[in-house]
Amino acid sequence: MSLKSQLLIYINSLLLIATLIGLMTIMMVTQKNVREEVLSTMSLAEFAIEQGVKKNPDFYLFQRENNELGISELSGIRHLKIQFYDENDVLLEETLNTPDEIKPPPVWFINIIESLSDKIFFSKINIEQRGELAGYILIKPEPIYEYAEIWQQIKVGLWIIVAFLVVINFVVLLLFSYMIKPINKIIEGFEKLETGNYKSRIKKSNILELDIIGKKFNSMIDNLRQSNNKIHQLSQNLIDVQEQEKSELARDLHDELGQSLTALQAEAASISKSTKKKSRDEAIFNVIQLSKNMMLSTREIIKKLNLGLIEDLGFESALIELFENWKRRFKGVKFEYQMDEKAFKKITKKKTAHLYRIFQEALTNIAKHSSPKKIQISIKYLENNDRTRILISNDGINDDSSNQEGLGLIGIAERVDQINGTVEVSKKKLFKLIINLS
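User: That's the sequence. What structure does it adopt?
Assistant: Structure tokens below.
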């Protein structure tokens, strides 16, 4: 169901409830007024009959034919029906109401009105003549005239309410059509976003809630555009890294295996030309040593490619070897590292490869973009919140920190995200990379 339909249903439901409450209130107040008016008229009629007919029955009975009291002349009293019966319960006379004078309201309406108040009972006045019962007068409430007037007024009110509802619905449709335009713009923005268009913007609509949504949407577009650019840069960097790894592999193959193969060829040639046993034995020994060196070099290259070092030595020992190799390469830098045994017990096997690459990337970034005098690395288990905290800091931070927002950190952040961790970067005095693992 559309928002427009829901809004119209809510508005009409509230108006209908308010109308019903209003009608019930009007009927209750009206019934109270009718009851008071009927009771007042009955009291007046009782007083007149008590003071007139009951005290002077002879005057009224002998002045008219058929023992009538002239009650029919009181037909103008709209709220009452007055009847005169003789001592044998035979109706002699009553007030008459012309049927054309009134159009009765629906029965259900009368039932509702009468259910809202207590029933008004009729009044009976005995008429005696010379000490004997000559008959009795019944005074019955008859508020049908008032009910008819109320019904006519309510019908007019209902028509006014219907017209009001039509106008309200028309105005709501117009206002909603005007207000929904910014929502349509938001929908169009999402449709463009689905196609990869990050240039769409939502303008202000002067509607506070929709302006907040538009502001959040524009902010999301900016973040997505930046993320898309970072992903693109990361992809380009990945290609560069792959090319660099290929170049390093080619260089290692050339430096390590190429030289050994050349030496092997030279030794093999000397063996074929040598006639002395001693010279041949020395050449054969050299060939064996070169073969062993080639096997070791090949194994080192394979370890670099598939991190077999972790499988052979274990994660902690592999990290120690990585840190020690780095210390040997950069002897002028004070390199300190602390490792908590509890932390290594909490680190799962699936995370070790990612963490090893993270340390490699972090140290490579430091070598490329910083000139540190001191590097500190700590791997510590925090018992309070059951987390492993990794800190990598160096004092070689530059005034221009653009290098620290580069692709190296993006790659590290991606790897940390894959192992369900968080990354924090601090640049106050020391450049600190903080990784938290659950």
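The chain has eleven helices and nine strands.
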